[in-house]
């Protein structure tokens, strides 16, 4: 199941999707969202510049990776990560955790 479908099944609205880094950067700067889910590798490019923008906006984000936490960009290894493939329940728990963390920071 695609992540967007999973999010909708959980009752969330998908604010935006991007298939390449430039588009993701533009959306990260201009789109309102509660939490972002970032695939670590987008068409062979590391997602770090997008994560940097989201971090600067003080918005929560979760990484999705097939490589485990060692596949995360080094500066973000302390961030939550979903190991692909993941189940609906795992995604739901990760989002709840990210949103609770954002509430305590804000």
UniProtKB/TrEMBL annotation:
Which residues are annotated with the PTM 4-aspartylphosphate? 39
The Gene Ontology biological process terms listed for this entry are: phosphorelay signal transduction system
Q: Which UniProt keywords apply?
A: Phosphoprotein
Q: Which SUPFAM superfamilies match?
A: CheY-like (SSF52172)
Classify the source by domain of life: Bacteria
Ranges of residues in domain Response regulatory: 1-99
Recorded protein name is Putative response regulator receiver, CheY-like protein
User: What's the source species for this entry?
Assistant: Bradyrhizobium oligotrophicum S58
